[in-house]
Amino acid sequence: MIGFIPERYARSNHHLIDKISLIYGDITHDHGMDAIVSTIGPDLNPTGALNQSILAAAGHELDSFMLENIYKPKNGDVFSVPGFNLPVDNVVYTVIKPWEDSLNSEDRDLLRCYRRPMKMAVRMGWKKIAFPALGTGTKSFPIKRAARLGVQAILQRISPEIDDVYIICNRKDTFAAFRERLKQLNWRG
After folding, report:
1. What is the pLDDT of residues 63-95, one digit of tens each?
2. Long-range contacts, stretch 65-69, CB < 8 angstroms, 24+ apart
3. For residue 125, what are the CA distances in angstroms to 119, 120, 121, 138, 159?
4. Exposed/middle/buried for 167, CB within 10 Å: 0-12, 13-18, 19+?
5. Which pTM does this prediction carry?
6. Are residues 124 and 80 in contact, defined by beta-carbon separation less than 8 angstroms?
7. What is the dihedral of CA 104, 151, 72, 3, to 10 degrees?
8. pLDDT tens digit string along 128-156?
9. Alpha helices, DSSP H only, in the chain?
10. How remote is the C-alpha of 74 from its chain's centroid?
11. What is the CB-side half-sphere exposure of residue 155 using CA atoms within 13 A?
């Protein structure tokens, strides 16, 4: 399989798997997070239901802040912006192109979308971070593949400094895929 990363690497922090919680709901609601994560394209256009929900909850100050402070982001870039009217202080955006055919390093790119915010959380002293099912909306990543890669990347970067990592899915199919993947790794959630 192209882009396959051996399971042994995903298990490097397997003992911390119970720091992961899976929730069916809306990531923009108050879950007591320090930061929430979303993806955005290199053009900074907030397409997709998740980004529209974040923008609606945060207010137009978020859009203005991004346009004034972020210049020509590249695929793989990660940046944190204030949450403005959201019930969270930080929104972390990861820049990623849409999935095409798995021959163009999309797996690596999606792994980065999870790894880099996890690294940022440790650096910023955040204790609780929430991810949606990154890439499964307008970026069109296959759902089971996205779940496998997302869980793998979180486990690779989770550390004792982070108290909780939430995966918050707003669709039943993504929730089921993440739950199945976590259960395969003996998650007790």
Report:
1. 899 989 998 898 889 999 999 999 999 999 998
2. 66/93
3. 10, 8, 6, 31, 12
4. buried
5. 0.88
6. yes
7. -10
8. 999 999 988 766 788 999 999 999 999 99
9. 7-10, 49-58, 60-69, 106-124, 143-157, 172-184
10. 17
11. 24
